[in-house]
Batch of 3 targets.
Target 1
Amino acid sequence: MVKFPRKVVSFAKGPSQDHLETYPKDRFNHRINRVPMSRIAVLVCISLTFIFRRGTNLPDFHGLGNNVDHPEWGANHSMLQNNTTVAFANGFSSPAAPQRANPRLISNYLMGQPSVLPSTQGLSDYVWVFGQFIDHDVTLVGNNSAEFFPITINFPDPIFNPGGALPNALIPMSRSAHVPGTGTELGNPRRYANEISAFVDGSGVYGPDSIYRRLVAHTYRRKDEDIQWESSSPEYH
């Protein structure tokens, strides 16, 4: 039997204090017990069905199921498409064109800007920053730390080798991590997997999998000027 307090306040007759009415618990229990349990069960089932159906219509944070015929297309950890021919030096795995100019020299030449150059279209830097943000929301290839591939700076550089006084200056870089089993021979060049979904879904902010999602969902608190993550999961401790 459903139990209620000795008296329950009802506003059925109006919101003012003059219209307050109290009911003894026996009267409430009598009314509740008159409702058939089968009707209560039906209402509960309908509510749960509605809740679960709403959940299935939400996009998957892995990027799965966006294409009905090919649900894996665009999902995180799926292979990136090749829309051009590969350019590996050996045709399948080694870095391309080792005879090319140093990439830092090319960068300094292209990006050197001694003075402010306003946009002819009146655009601010927020335009390219937003473009970079969108780019990072649709593609991300991880690094392979086992394949250290630095950029040598054996020339004067205002940041990495001022005046050219450092003979062994370099920019630490690593090659991109390729999909295991690819890059073994001609006809099987290296392929790369996208670590996030290929959709503009905020995965760059909220993460592409359950670990990042839970991490962002957890709140933090400030204690003694230090940020401490609060989590019941041992993954973050």
Target 2
Amino acid sequence: MFETAVSETTVSGSTVPDPEAPDPRGRLDDLVAGARRGERRAWDALVERYRPLVRAVASGYRLNARDVEDVDQTVWLRLIENLDRIREPRALPKWLITTAANESRRLTRARQRTVLIGVLDEPVHDNGAEPPGTPDTDLLRRELARTVQQGLAELPVAQQRLLRLLAGDRQLSYREISRILVIPVGSIGPTRARGLARLRATAAVREYVAC
């Protein structure tokens, strides 16, 4: 990949490329046309130029680092699916902003609806030690954590390993998880989403929710 200086501007504390700045690697319409033809260099140039913009939008929704990565991966997958439908290349930055915003809002709503995701961060204290809190709260927390662990046991091994790594005490980046599990970075977000959906559908979790 060619080294180049990219014109930038600062928005809300994040450095993002100026969509109106000249592209030193070629005009935007040439890059879009090349990406449509399947040219890897043109696609990489588009991603390098606009990835900071996509991540800045996601960060504006106060998403954590993992969710920002999820939004980033999803936006580029959506672009692959819709690139031929973008008739005017100069509309690409706006399309990316809109898609990133929609995906960020979707993730935000999903976090608000999902009460089980955070439980993966709660260890089960079998040694009698209890985290601070009232006895009733501690009991409910341990019961919910055990339910999630039972639900995880019903998942395929690959999804179990991924969710346990994501919920571990050490905050691993997607690249670290990719190396550990020997899977593409781009597959982590979708696999995580499928694993969590499957977790919520397990007998253990459904029984707990029904109580």
Target 3
Amino acid sequence: MNKALKYILRFIRKFPIPVFIISFILLFFTLYRLFYMPWLIDNLHPKIINVNAFLPYGFIKILGEPVSFMQSKTIVSPNFSLDVIIDCCAIEPSILFFSAVMAYPVAVRKKLRILLIVIPLFFTINIIRIISLYYIGAYISFHIMERMHLDIWQGIFILIAIGVFVLWLKNTSKQKTVCNQ
């Protein structure tokens, strides 16, 4: 092993928290920036939006609402319509969680296991979020729907991402402790 690699590994072992924070920040902003590259905006974003709009539409329709699906992104009813945009697709909490997990120093297998559970969970919660916003907007008020959309659900998503990460850390730390004894 060369001297530079030994020095880096020693630094990582000596300063794990700053290394985690720097890794997390670099990974988060890199992924966020990559996700908004023009090619992805043109090719991937419309597909993500379509899935995130069509699934809630399907559930709302099954529940008996007189809705239609327009322009691959809009749920329309006689008294309310809901446009789904890329910012409504749980991408930010997913990138936040992914970055935190990948920056944490544990085996890749453990990281992949939690990511394969939590990212689909975020997607599922997001579908529930969109359905709830439709019903609030259609039957309560547009103003309350806006507050739920901008203030409540965004905070809930960030808290879920942080909470699941902290729980995963506790579980991972317990496993490390048991393995080290």
